[in-house]
Specification:
Layout: H1 18-28, E1 31-32, E2 40-41, H2 46-55, H3 61-73, H4 75-100, H5 107-121, E3 124-128, E4 134-138, H6 149-160, E5 168-170, E6 179-181, H7 194-213
Antiparallel strand pairs: 1-2, 3-4, 5-6
Helix pairs in contact: 1-4, 1-6, 2-3, 3-4, 4-5, 4-6, 5-6
The protein binds zinc ion.
Amino acid sequence: MTGELGGGDVFSLGVLDQAALTLGLDFANTGDLHVDPNPNERFTSYEAAVGWAEQAGILSASQAAGLAARARARPEGAAKALQRIIALREAVYRIFSAVAHDREPDPGDIQALHAELGVALVHLRLIAREDQPFAWAWAGIEDDLASLLWPVARATAALLTSPQLSRVRECAGDPCDWLFLDHSKNGSRRWCDMSECGNRAKARRYRERRKVLG
Ligand SMILES: [Zn+2]
């Protein structure tokens, strides 16, 4: 195990800040149309997955660069890590999609999350900070090609155990299966984005009504 302890900032997770809570959903949303024969896939390469993790604030730029270099040196390991990343992503999607539709998540998906959570928690450390007594950090995050799953697994578990779980929704847009937290007062938000999916649905309903009216 070497070097920098990373990923602590988003994950002062004793404190459940919003970024930490939605990370599991953001992760699930790196795929779209999960059950479609032609899904939209953001993780088209290992580097793409690491790029997302950097953007999401769970890897620093140097950690991301270190993992990309490691992946270039171990292409087979990187391919396997990518498979594992996508497998957990799909499990996380199915878990939250089930929750959003008031269904029981598949025990196999929960088990897949448990497996990654077990791996993740072994790497969790408390580090002393200048501005606060201690903070959470991940040890060896740049040494394991699948390490972006650690904060993701932890954040997913955090949302699953949070009262905010009841606010998880899946976009009613067609075609769209983005997951989001509904912060509307009456809990009735239906679309990931009104300007995209909401307007598309409205336009479709308008066209259908016109058709019926002839
Ligand atoms: Zn949508």
